[in-house]
C-alpha cells in the first residue's frame, strides 16, 4: 500500500513495515511547519494501526533534511518554531511507541538531525553528514538537540557541534553513538528496511515494551529504570505472544506472533 501526501510518502515495504519518505525535495526536505505536522499525523495513524510494527523514515540520496525552514523563521521569527501545532507534532514523533528507524543519506542538519535523534536506530550512508548549524544564523537548536545530543554523544561533542556549527561525518557519528551502522552510500534505506523487517517479525508488544524501557534510561534514575524494566517484563510474561515464543522455541519451529 502506498499513500502519498504533498510532503510525506507512506509506503508498505515489507509485512508490518511502513516507510515514510520526506518529500519536500525542492527545499532539501526543510522541516516546515506543514511538513512536521504532516509527519506527526502520519505517525499518530501508524501508532494505532495494528498492521504496523516498525517504521522507517528516510529522505533522498542527497539529503535527509537540511533543517528547519529558514524562510519561515525569517518571516515569523520565534513563532515559526514555537507554535502549538509544531510542538504537538514533535511530541507525536517523540512519543511514537513502536520501533522507529532513520535511514540517513547526505545532509542531516538542524531540525533534520533533531528528527534523527528521535529515531530508535539510525542507519547512515557513508557520505552522510550530521550537524547543528543554527548558530550560523544567530540562534541555537530549538527542537531538542541541546538536550538529546548531549545525552547521546556527551557534552564535549555536543558543544563542538552546537557552538561551532561544524558538522561531523557518519563514521564519527557512529563512534559517538549517534548512528548504529554505516553502510555504503545509497544503501541506508535498504539496510534500514531489512532491519525493520527483522524487528517486525518479533512480538510487537515486547518490542514496544523494550523500546520504552531503553528510553527510560534517559529519562529517570537507575533504580526507577530498573523497576520500569521489571514491570515491563512482568507484562510481557502475561501475553499470548510470550507463550507462543516459548512454545515455538521448544517445538523447534518459527513463532507466529499476533500482537497479543
Task: Write a brief structural summary.
With 260 residues, this protein is an alpha/beta fold. The chain has helices spanning 33-48, 70-76, 84-94, 110-117, 145-153, 155-164, 170-175, 188-200, 204-219, 222-236, 240-251; strands at residues 2-4, 8-14, 17-22, 54-58, 63-65, 100-104, 107-109, 121-125, 129-131, 168-169, 181-183.
Can you put this structure into words, describing what you see?
The chain has about 260 residues and is of the alpha/beta class. It folds into two domains: about 5-200, Alpha-Beta Complex (2-enoyl-CoA Hydratase, Chain A, domain 1), CATH 3.90.226; about 200-250, Lyase 2-enoyl-coa Hydratase, Chain  A, domain 2, CATH 1.10.12. Helices cover about 45% and strands about 15% of the residues. It has eleven helices and eleven strands. The protein has helices spanning about 35-50, 70-75, 85-95, 110-115, 145-155, 155-165, 170-175, 190-200, 205-220, 220-235, 240-250; strands at about 1-5, 10-15, 15-20, 55-60, 65, 100-105, 105-110, 120-125, 130, 170, 180-185. It has a seven-stranded mixed sheet, with helices on both faces. Helix 5 packs across helix 6 (about 155-165). The longest helix has 16 residues, at about 35-50. It starts with a strand and ends in a 9-residue tail after the last helix. Belongs to the enoyl-CoA hydratase/isomerase family.
Write the topology of this structure:
Blueprint: E1 2-4, E2 8-14, E3 17-22, H1 33-48, E4 54-58, E5 63-65, H2 70-76, H3 84-94, E6 100-104, E7 107-109, H4 110-117, E8 121-125, E9 129-131, H5 145-153, H6 155-164, E10 168-169, H7 170-175, E11 181-183, H8 188-200, H9 204-219, H10 222-236, H11 240-251
Parallel strand pairs: 3-4, 4-6, 5-7, 6-8, 7-9, 8-11
Antiparallel strand pairs: 1-2, 2-3, 9-10
Amino acid at each position: 500500500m502506498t499513500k502519498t501526501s504533498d510532503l510525506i510518502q507512506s509506503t508498505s515495504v515489507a509485512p508490518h513495515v511502513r516507510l515514510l519518505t520526506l518529500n519536500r525535495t525542492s527545499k532539501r526536505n526543510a522541516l516546515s511547519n506543514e511538513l512536521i505536522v504532516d509527519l506527526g499525523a502520519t505517525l499518530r495513524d501508524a501508532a494505532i494501526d495494528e498492521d504496523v510494527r516498525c517504521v522507517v523514515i528516510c529522505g533522498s540520496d542527497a539529503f535527509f533534511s537540511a533543517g528547519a525552514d529558514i524562510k519561515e523563521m525569517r518571516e515569523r521569527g520565534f513563532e515559526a518554531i514555537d507554535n502549538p501545532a509544531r510542538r504537538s507534532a514533535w511530541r507525536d514523533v517523540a512519543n511514537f511507541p513502536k520501533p522507529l528507524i532513520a535511514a540517513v543519506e547526505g545532509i542531516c542538519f538542524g531540525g533534520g538531525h533533531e528528527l534523527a535523534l528521535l529515531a530508535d536506530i539510525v542507519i547512515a550512508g557513508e557520505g552522510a553528514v550530521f550537524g547543528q548549524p543554527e548558530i550560523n544564523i544567530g540562534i541555537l537548536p530549538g527542537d531538542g538537540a541541546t538536550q538529546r545530543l548531549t545525552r547521546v554523544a556527551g557534552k564535549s561533542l555536543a558543544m563542538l557541534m552546537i557552538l561551532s556549527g561544524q558538522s561531523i561525518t557518519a563514521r564519527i557519528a557512529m563512534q559517538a553513538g549517534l548512528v548504529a551502522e554505516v553502510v555504503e552510500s545509497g544503501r541506508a534505506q535498504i539496510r534500514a528496511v531489512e532491519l525493520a523487517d527483522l524487528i517486525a517479525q518479533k512480538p510487537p508488544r515486547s518490542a514496544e515494551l523494550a523500546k520504552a524501557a531503553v528510553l527510560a534510561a534517559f529519562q529517570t534514575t537507575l533504580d526507577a529504570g530498573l523497576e520500569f524494566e521489571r514491570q515491563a517484563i512482568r507484562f510481557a510474561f502475561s501475553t499470548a505472544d510470550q507463550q507462543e515464543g516459548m512454545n515455538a522455541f521448544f517445538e523447534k519451529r518459527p513463532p507466529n506472533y499476533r500482537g497479543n
